[in-house]
Amino acid sequence: MMKEVFKRALVIYRPTPTCLEKTKKIIELLREYGLAVNSFWVDDLIKEMKIKTDLVVSIGGDGTLLKISRVFQDTTPLILPIPCGRRTALYEPIDTSDLEKILDMVMNGLFTIQTLSRIDVILDNNRYTALNEAELISIDRGRVIRSKITVKTPAFVSEYYLEGDGILIGTSPGSAAYNLSVRGPFIDYFLETIYITPLNPMELNISPIIVPPLSKILIETMGIMEIYIDGERTDILGPHRKILVEHSNKDFRIMRIYGKKDFIRDVFEKRRILHS
Known about the structure:
By secondary structure, the protein is of the alpha+beta class. The chain is 17% helix and 38% strand. A hairpin with a 2-residue loop joins strand 6 and strand 7 (126-130).
């Protein structure tokens, strides 16, 4: 007898022919299991949406998961990622022909849960939860800007100034995204850490920093900067604005059907340039 694991499902998808085909099939299967199903095109998702659901099915790429993270700031429903995008480092290789088997396993609770750490970005009285990173960058691209960074960890308090294009602060899962492109550290998901990566620093000996999850990072702007959270422009910051970044207690929960992923190989293979 099938266990009653879920009652409501939300399907988020990219509006491409391949993704739409998978979306229709998954919605049909979920309804056959008796679930109430809603669906949204990924670009229709906004942070202010309040959706109650037991299961989220993400049909897209890593950008689709970032959008889902922005919507579910205060809650963490289980997420089943179905790959259908260009960058799918957070997905398992699930084929359309496997969908019936995959959904049957999900509905019977035959899966494991991988938790991905997130960070909270506190700006004025607003709190934003990010899966990948917060980016602070000079509003005048290419113009050097100065920032003051104060790092408080369980072991020490450090204060320093950074001059360059900006700063990237993110999570272990986020280390495989923009951070990797700017030569930041590649961190295993298992390690709950926060990285601080300078963007094009003026001093060549300035390197990225990795701090433990109990750290608090305070950034004070010395000029006009833009702040992007998980790739979405959030605000324009004038001089002497302060941003606090700390570990979030709301992890992102992803279903795994096939067990452990070869995370490092998956990331590098999907970034490799193939030659004909």
